[in-house]
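Section 5: illustrative case.
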């Protein structure tokens, strides 16, 4: 089988008779194998590659991109292809997320295209891609592109000197790119002594970025550990201003030291000293956990966390210490005994509730915790109590009706955020709860707050309701989210009397639309794809992109998902209705 048209024979006038095996996942391995065969003429391979990159799908380019990415992957089996440099360069551009057509024109690329391009770069001809990135690093005038290209180059070719040098240059320029350049270097500079030394020079200028990076790339490195130890030994007024709390100053350095200084005796002594100095502060629990990480079994670390449970009145410190004990010594009987006693003896109702929640998490099914929370649920006035108590009580069937009653109480408070949280708990208990579902649909249809829509998008994905919902209910839900995609507006714009839209509001607006798009793709089923494409495709015109690029990107993401789950003939017919 030497004729490439067996895999791809495009005939738009007769789609049913054409051949589009290039878009069928089960044929991909066979096609790539075809490119590797010595007995297939080079001309055949060249013609196939040319046909793939020239393919015009006439339906939004979704299948054009797929054909192009297949051509790029084929280069791994056919590296001598004469079109290889052109293909690698194009895929590289798509991977940027944005690029300049000329000095005055930036083009923003949709995230699914960028994500697929980046994945393809890892699958195509590796040498060609590395060479293209090296060239880009040396020639680009954009600091942003330089940073992104250097980071990707360092991942593709660990230790690449051009990548590391480019990022170190950005850092040494100490401009607005300092923080992002440090984060990029963190991703490719693991264990590199020169990188670590350079970062330490900026620890007082941008301490939190440098400290986090040292905690990621300095495992076992004495220089990185010494810098963190020196930072922790400094007095608070030597590091930051009076408005910062101790945990704001030291937390990152302590956690970073816990990541990299395993067995380091100086680090162990430093953390022990720190615990003694700040044993009544929230940061003490972080130091104890870091001490255990670098010296497993350390009695001081374990004892201080248990001691905190006995003496603290700070519920945040109580909660954090229990969380750490769940990791380092789960099942510790002393923890259960202490929390049980404190629940019984405290006169502070807020503390009793927090202690019961901690005990319920540490010892799942604990009767004291469950009984306490059940009583609190009957009389609680704080909304957070209902939700946290429900989380602990939910696995116990005996309290399900009590939880349902409490959640409807929350729904009826008329606060949309509270109602939404309560409704999802009700649907988690019973996904076919008609009353809860109808109330949710009504809320989504009438809300004027973008946070409600974005939260609903997240929660729907978390609970994977599309699998559980009845067909009629699912159709109603899909209709709601299609309408939101079509009509969603940023309320901040309406409230701004000058008509100005600030960058933070643009981000909020974009985020809201993209969350709704993600939600829609998470719930639509195969039978919905055709109608979704027909309904939304007109939002992908060039004019619409210029007038409303965020809605354009949201629709692009949705139809990309549809195209991945439809055949090319089906998408073409939907596109042309």
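Designed sequence:
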């Amino acid at each position: 089988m030497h004729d490439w048209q067996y895999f791809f024979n495009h005939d738009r006038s007769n789609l049913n008779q054409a051949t589009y095996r290039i878009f069928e996942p089960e044929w991909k391995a066979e096609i790539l194998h075809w490119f590797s065969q010595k007995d297939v003429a080079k001309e055949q391979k060249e013609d196939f590659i040319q046909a793939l990159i020239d393919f015009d799908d006439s339906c939004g380019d979704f299948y054009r991109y797929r054909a192009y990415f297949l051509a790029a992957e084929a280069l791994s089996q056919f590296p001598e292809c004469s079109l290889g440099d052109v293909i690698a360069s194009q895929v590289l551009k798509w991977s940027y997320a944005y690029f300049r057509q000329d000095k005055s024109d930036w083009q923003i690329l949709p995230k699914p295209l960028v994500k697929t391009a980046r994945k393809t770069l890892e699958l195509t001809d590796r040498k060609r891609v590395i060479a293209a990135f090296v060239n880009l690093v040396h020639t680009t005038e954009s600091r942003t592109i330089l940073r992104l290209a250097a980071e990707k180059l360092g991942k593709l070719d660990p230790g690449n000197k051009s990548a590391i040098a480019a990022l170190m240059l950005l850092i040494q320029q100490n401009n607005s790119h300092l923080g992002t350049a440090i984060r990029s270097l963190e991703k490719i500079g693991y264990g590199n002594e020169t990188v670590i030394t350079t970062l330490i020079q900026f620890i007082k200028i941008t301490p939190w970025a440098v400290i986090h990076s040292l905690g990621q790339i300095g495992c076992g490195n004495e220089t990185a550990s010494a810098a963190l130890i020196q930072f922790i030994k400094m007095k608070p007024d030597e590091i930051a201003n009076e408005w910062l709390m101790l945990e704001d100053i030291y937390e990152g350095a302590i956690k970073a030291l816990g990541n990299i200084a395993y067995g380091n005796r100086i680090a162990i002594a430093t953390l022990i000293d720190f615990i003694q100095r700040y044993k009544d502060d929230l940061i003490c629990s972080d130091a104890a956990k870091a001490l255990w990480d670098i010296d497993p079994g350390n009695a001081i670390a374990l004892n201080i966390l248990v001691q905190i449970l006995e003496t603290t009145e700070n519920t945040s410190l109580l909660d954090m210490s229990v969380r750490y004990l769940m990791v380092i010594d789960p099942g510790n009987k002393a923890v259960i005994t202490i929390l049980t006693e404190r629940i019984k003896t405290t006169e502070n109702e807020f503390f009793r509730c927090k202690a019961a929640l901690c005990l319920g998490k540490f010892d799942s099914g604990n009767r004291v915790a469950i009984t306490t929370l059940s009583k609190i649920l009957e009389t609680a006035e704080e909304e957070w109590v209902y939700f946290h108590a429900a989380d602990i009580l939910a696995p116990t069937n005996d309290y399900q009706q009590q939880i349902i009653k409490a959640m409807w109480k929350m729904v009826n408070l008329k606060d949309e955020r509270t109602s939404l949280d309560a409704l999802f708990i009700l649907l988690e208990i019973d996904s076919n709860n008609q009353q809860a579902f109808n109330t949710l649909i009504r809320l989504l249809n009438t809300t004027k707050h973008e946070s409600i829509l974005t939260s609903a998008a997240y929660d729907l994905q978390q609970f994977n309701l599309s699998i559980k919902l009845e067909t009629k209910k699912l159709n109603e839900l899909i209709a709601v989210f299609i309408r939101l995609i079509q009509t969603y507006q940023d309320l901040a714009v309406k409230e701004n009397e000058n008509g100005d839209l600030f960058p933070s509001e643009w981000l909020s607006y974009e985020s809201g639309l993209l969350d709704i798009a993600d939600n829609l793709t998470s719930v639509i089923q195969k039978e919905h794809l055709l109608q979704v494409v027909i309904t939304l495709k007109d939002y992908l015109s060039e004019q619409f992109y210029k007038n409303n690029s965020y809605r354009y990107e949201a629709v692009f993401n949705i139809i990309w998902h549809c195209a991945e789950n439809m055949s090319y003939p089906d998408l073409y017919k939907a596109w042309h209705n």
